[in-house]
Amino acid sequence: MNVKMKMSPQMRKRKIKDSLVVGVCLAPSATIILVFTYMAFIFCVFLSFNKWNMLSPMKWVGFANYREAFTSPDFWNSLKVTFIYVIVAVPSCVFLGMLIGLLLNWVTFARGTFRLLVFLPVITSMVIAAIIWKWLFDPNVGFINYILFSMGVQASHWTQWLKDPSGGALVAVLVVGIWKRVGYNGVLFLAGLKNISPTFYEAATIDGANRLQKFTKITLPLLSPTTFIITVLQFFSAFKVIESVLVMTKGGPAKSTEVLVLHLYENAFSYLKMGYASTVSVVLFFLIMFFTIIQLALEKRIVHYQ
Amino acid sequence: MLKLENRSILRKKNSLGIMFIYLSLLVLVVIINYPFFWMLSTSLKARSEVFKIPPTLIPRNWVWSNYSEAWALADWSTYFVNTAIVAVIPTVGQMFFGALAAYAFTRPFKGSKVLFLMFLGTMMIPSQATLVPNYVILKNLKWINTYAGLTVPFISSAFAVFMLRQFFLSVPRDYEDAATIDGCGPFHFLFRILLPLSRSALVTVGLFAFMDRWNDFIWALIMTTKDSMRTVQVGMAVFQSESGTEWTYMMAAATFVSLPVIILFLFVQRQFIEGVMMSGVKG
Amino acid sequence: MKRRIVALMLCVALLATGTIMAQGEKEAAAKKPAGPITIDFWYSIGGNPQKATKALVEKFNNSQNEVYVEAMYGGSYEDTTKKLLASVVAGETPVVAHMAMAYTAQFVLDGYFESLNKYFAADKEVTEDSFVEGLLELNRWKGELYGMPFNCSNPIMFYNKDLFRAAGLDPNKPPTTWDELYEYSKKISALGSDIYGFNIERGSGWISQGYTWQFGGEWIAPDNSTVLWTDPAAVEALSFMQKMYNEGLAVYQGGNTMDFSGKVGMMIRSTATLTDTIQSANYEVGVAPIPYKVRKQVPIGGGSLYVFESATQAEKDAAWKFLKFMGNKESQMYWAEMTGYQASSVAALESAEMQALWEKDARFKTTYDQVPYAVVEDQTRLIPFNEVRSIFNDAWDSTILKNESAAKNLADAQVKANKVIDQYK
Question: Across chain B, how many H-helices and E-strands are there?
Fold first, then answer.
């Protein structure tokens, strides 16, 4: 308060100019986000208190959609499937990404080619990729079983892949999700690794540290900011997974791969329950928000900055 | 630095280890790219060879005509022009407007934290849920069937702002202070000093925007009702029908549809890695 | 750097002008057609049928100059429905839409489609008798006719003559009953561990609904008040398939990957896949009517053309001309020949061209042999059809893939489905 009172006209002028700059810079992006995400989302929140099939007029129902969601076994099932997906996909993508980053960091020969080949899944469309994978996973004519069987693997419910409701289908969907993302993480890790100053390693060598020690005492801690960002981004995408599931299994067999966003999508466009679907999306928003806040809170404890 | 480390390994007589690393990378690359290999191979097979058991890796007869026939099945040249427009405008937009917004977020101002969280929040909303509301918004703007409807909603994104902000934060504050003392205004600083420094971060943001838009299906499908406004991903849908999937054509089309993005990546690859390197790490 | 930025700005400006100009051109192009009335037509079928649809629309546009149809591919049935829903919400529907029946009930109920009764009454060139029996019933609701049958089909049985020969079966004597099919499958699957007698259709729903009929059951009560999946016939149909699957006689799979591999003896698919199967399969393809157990009955599938009620009268009249054209003898003959779909026009069916087609390839006739006992799927009268059907499909998946009790799963599914139905009462 005091400071403001004492401000000279010149300083005030600068202050005004400053906020003008901020305003001008933010206006276009903020407008886009406000109109096409938040306006639409606020409409969604409104819809979540209505019954609406998009064809008849909507009807205010209060919390009925929320009650329906929380008492519906299908909703809880899709929540469970989503959690399993996130719990498996996030660590494996981070771990495999780190592995790829480390390998890419070692390589000196044909570096660009390796980078491109690792990155290819990231740049192709998920719809195309999922169509191809669906065929590769076919239990009878697919290439994966062909290889597995010729290696002597016995047929079991797992090798039914997309038709196995007791896990095989979810594994297949996870494989594709991880495959699509791992190159992206690998390149991010590569960049992180390159940012670690070699002096740390030199000092460690002088102190007589072995390779494992160097990895756990230098690489991992110094990589933690990268790991953190990758985990957060991975988390967003894993929670919102849909395209691969939609193409490969449509949530089946027997709902064993029905993730939340697919549950929402089916209810909205196949069952014409837009109100209920909006409810699911609102719940999903707060779920992701909750976990993001936890992650941000953990950031300070886990992440070491160089 | 990298070379130095490798040399020291070499000295430690560990050429076997290096062999092992290359081998594992090779295996990894083969596994990762098998689906693409399969796509290419199918795109060149005769229809009757596609479903052979055991699957053939290399087509027996190379049916190049799959490509010309797939091309003739839809108005691909229009789709490609549309997709280029629909991908390039958001790419340029996200670089430009993303940089502006990110720059604002590097300056302290009231409510900056809340606003930034709101930007991040957009990543938590599933786009499937906002599809119908957005259709209504576009209709009221009279943007259905226009390039505006396909591009303007994407000329800025939270991801771009987030990436660029991370990068800008890593540029020492002294630069701007020094520039200000020299009488350089904020925009001069942004365009003349900050952006040239962040070329690779811009490339990264641009590449992701381009990939995202090039590969988009559902928005382009719902927001257009005229064939002349369609994009390549929507065009791909013609190979699937109740009467089954036309695999050879579909894979041929998948190949030529993915090609531009791959070429683009090849061009910007090095700057892209640098871009990630500089923006991704510093908190 | 400054120069670069200027270049960048220039690029943006250029693109922007380019965009605007391109748009202007496109609008001009759209206005060019001679007819005073342009109507939008969204269709939802890809592949060969898409080519035929485009050709028919072009033919219609060239045949007269009062109406110009602007055809647009809306994606799969699901995707077109999504587009239509969005367009309804925004109040900008096309004039004519091509939809699968499964998605139309709510549209009909809420009055989005124009009843075609008065057009049939006023038009002397075409009557309801011009269409193959049963097909119009697809779209009749409380006496009003809401759609014109366009791509009609029923499922037929495809079989692999090469495998029949190898198993010592007569390739010209396909099974006619499900019990026979079981015996045939035993013989065929004995040929090898990766060879199967039958492919149980998975996921599409309409074919498995048909299995229930053929075992003597009904899928849903005539008044739509309850599904009838606990009926012994419905349970028997599912148990029968479960047994085939468990004994290794059958695979349980949707899509066409397995069909063309030559590893499956018999499969049931829409007649619409006939052309594609003959072209893609690497074995001699035989075609036969679907087997039965208690009664011969097959479902009618496919889609129809609907006119939106919100269109102006002039647009509706134009649409009627288009609908009539799409359903006439020449169009339906062309359609059937190009795609393998069933012709909906009686005149096409009785034409010399059709006889010639059957003469050339008798396999194209099977679907017509089934017409006398082809019945409208029960879906058209049921609003939450998609939701109910997915419950049914889940019960089938659980029973066959997890080897659970058919009776219990169907009973549970029935309770769940009836709960959904009750919400709409």
Answer: 16, 2
